Each structure stands twice: as structure tokens, then as C-alpha cells.
């Protein structure tokens, strides 16, 4: 998922859950049924899960632009001099 | 939000937080209900009135309890626990409360009732102070919600008196 997709997911998740909660509360109060409220909210949570958790294609519409390999060669990585001590040196 | 697990965790946490909010609001909505319960208790008969071997008085009564607790039920009520207590004063204790009968009312339909019953629990005094005693019969109730705080209230009915001599 790219950055734009992640932002979209976060917004969608919050909005969908809040709306589920509000709708559940209003319908439950007017029908005087606690059970209805809980069922509507559970349905809303399941719907939100299906929309936001899997990696749908529409979250990948702005893929990251990685640099060309030729561009990267123009800026070589600094060389690490191996030390005389027994410390492990990790090369990136 | 870059991995499945991350998103699933965020969703679950937020969903549970919103659930807590919903339950708090549902519990708060109980404040807006108009509650007008009513009750009447009649003592039909004093079955017997004796002094036990250990020196404590005991009474057996037949009661007729009529009550309408339907207005206590809201959408957020799980059940109402009602009980009848005999309350009186003695020289040793400022208040004695003896529970005589109780019931769990699970639904609004069952909350308007008429029952004639002898006391479910024994009416035993601490001592032998009951002869000629004036006492109140109080119907207490505890409304147990589906979410939120339980609250209790009562109706006090006074004017009852036990006989002056054992029978």
C-alpha cells in the first residue's frame, strides 16, 4: 500500500466506524432494542474490515517513484574501512 | 498502515473504543426515562407467631403483593430485582430489615403482577421484640442495566402491626 493509500485507509476506517456507531445508536434508541444496536454496529465493523484491511488495488494508485539505477551509481555509497578489532561491520 | 496486521490492530482498537462510547451513551439515555412505579402490600394472615427455643421471635405471614414496575424498564434494562423487606426499630438496633420475599423480573411484561404468598424467607428477630411491634413493609428494587450503573429505589408502606401475644 502506498502513502496515499495509507492515508485514505486511515480516514476511511475512522469515518466508517464512527458512522456505524452513530447509526447503530440512533436506530437502537428509536426501536428500543439494544440487540439491534449491537447487530448494526457489528455489521459496520465487519464492513469496515472488508474495506480497509485487505490491500485493495485502489490503495495503490500513487506508487512510489524509485530512482533509476543509473542515478544511484552517480552517488556511490561511502566505503566502510574494515577495522582491526573483532567488531562486526555491517555493510548496507 | 503499511501492513495487514497493523491495519487490523488499528481497526480493532478503534472499534472497541467506539463500542465503549456507544455503551456509555446508551447508559446515559436512561436518565431521560420517566419512572412511575407503584406497589401495594396487604397482610392477609398471620399464620403463626412464636418464640423459638433460642429465644428469638419468629413470624409467618401470608402476603398479597401487587406491583406495577413496568415503567422501570428501558431499552437498556436487563432485569429488575425486587424484594419485600419488613423494617422496624428495636431498643438494640435503630433499623432492622428482614427480607421476606424476592423475585427477578426479566421482562417488562412480567413487571405488573399480583402474587399471594407466604414469606419466602423466615421472619426472625434478634431477640424477642416483635410482640405488638409496628413495622413497615418496603418494596425495594434494583434495576440492572445491560450497560452502565445499577440503581436502586424503594416504596415504603407503613402501618402494619404484629399481634401483642404469641399464637
Account of the protein in words:
The complex is a heterodimer of chains A (92) and B (167). The mean pLDDT of chain A is 85. Chain A is elongated. Chain A is built from three helices and no strands. Chain A is an all-alpha fold and 92 residues long. The longest helix of chain A is centred in the N-terminal third of the chain and has 29 residues, at 3-31. Chain A has helices spanning 3-31, 34-52, 69-73. Chain B has one helix and eight strands. The longest helix of chain B is centred in the first third of the chain and has 25 residues, at 4-28. In chain B, the strands form two sheets. In chain B, strands 1, 2, 5 and 6 form a four-stranded antiparallel beta sheet that branches. A four-stranded antiparallel beta sheet of chain B has the order 4-3-7-8, with no helix packed on it. In chain B, 22% of the residues are buried. In chain B, 15% of the residues lie in helices and 48% in strands. With 167 residues, chain B is mainly β. Chain B starts with a helix and ends in a 6-residue tail after the last strand. Chain A binds chain B through residues 1, 5-7, 9-10, 13-14, 17-18, 20-21, 24-25, 28-29, 32-34, 37, 41, 45, 48-49, 52-55, and chain B through 1-2, 4, 7-8, 10-11, 14-15, 18-19, 21-22, 25-26, 29, 74-76, 146.
Task: Sum this structure up briefly.
The complex is a heterodimer of chains A (92) and B (167). With 92 residues, chain A is mostly helical.
Sketch the major β-sheet of chain B: 4 strands, antiparallel
What Rg of chain A do the Cα atoms give?
A: 25 Å
Give the end-to-end Cα distance of chain A, rounded to a whole number of Å: 25 Å
Q: End-to-end span of chain B in angstroms?
A: 80 Å
The number of distinct β-strands of chain A equals: 0
Query: Strand count, sense and closure of the main sheet of chain A?
Result: none
What integer value in Å does the Rg of chain B equal?
A: 23 Å
Order of helices and strands of chain B: HEEEEEEEE
Instruction: Give the percentage of residues in beta strands of chain B.
Output: over 45%
- Please state the average pLDDT score of chain A: 85
Strand content of chain A: under 5%
DSSP strand count of chain B: 8
| Percent helix range of chain A | 55-70%
Instruction: State the helix count of chain A.
Output: 3
Q: Percent helix among the residues of chain B?
A: 10-25%
Structural class of chain A: mainly alpha
Global shape of chain A? elongated
How many distinct helices of chain B? 1
Could you tell me which chain pair has the largest interface and how many residues each side has? A-B, 28 and 20 residues
Q: Uncertain runs of chain B with pLDDT below 50, 5 residues or more? A: none
Keywords (chain B): Endoplasmic reticulum, Membrane, Signal-anchor, Transmembrane, Transmembrane helix
Membrane topology (chain B): Single-pass type II membrane protein
Pfam families (chain B): SPC22
Subcellular location (chain B): Endoplasmic reticulum membrane
